[in-house]
Amino acid sequence: MSTTVLIDNCVWDLLWSRGVQLRDEQGGDLTFTVSPYGTQEIPPADHPNTKARAVGDYAREQLAEPQAQEATWFCFGDLDDPTAGSGGFGDLQDDGTVVGGGFLTSAEGQDFRNANQHRIGGDSGTKVTKSGLLKNQTDVDYGEWSFGLPVVTLNAKDYKGAGQVIDLSSWSTGSFGDFIRSHLAAPAAT
Hints:
Elements: E1 3-7, H1 12-17, H2 22-26, E2 30-33, H3 36-41, H4 50-64, E3 91-92, E4 98-99, H5 107-116, H6 137-145, E5 151-153, E6 165-167, H7 176-185
Parallel strand pairs: 1-2, 1-5, 5-6
Antiparallel strand pairs: 3-4
């Protein structure tokens, strides 16, 4: 069985600079992907910064190559209304908000979200990033995910109190996939 690992947006620059090929790194035991928020944070092809465009192109290529499916929260669909998108427990809108319903998550994940809800949007609750998402929106979402799926990041401080977070800042040698495997095999800190 394959372990799904979420990639925080801050990781793409490092993977790009080291020429990591996710298809080769994941083997049969890992699946690297992002959530819908993670997809929205990838720099667009028309980004004004040349490096950001290159990193965005790389990230989209890497996610397409192993044909990774976005990690999405469970919800019931409406087979009678194909335009309804994901329904039942909620509909994800283009701006990253969820309309209707709620998430199916672990109690720990929900506790993390509730404890960190105040971070979304900054002090005003309305600060939007260049991706169109609210500030810290993906961090809080990935923190909730981390109680069921490991999250790899370079900003571990953003996930204080979260579940399984792999801090990539200590990766200096070996392959990306082996680094992730070593952290998955390590006993959990108590």
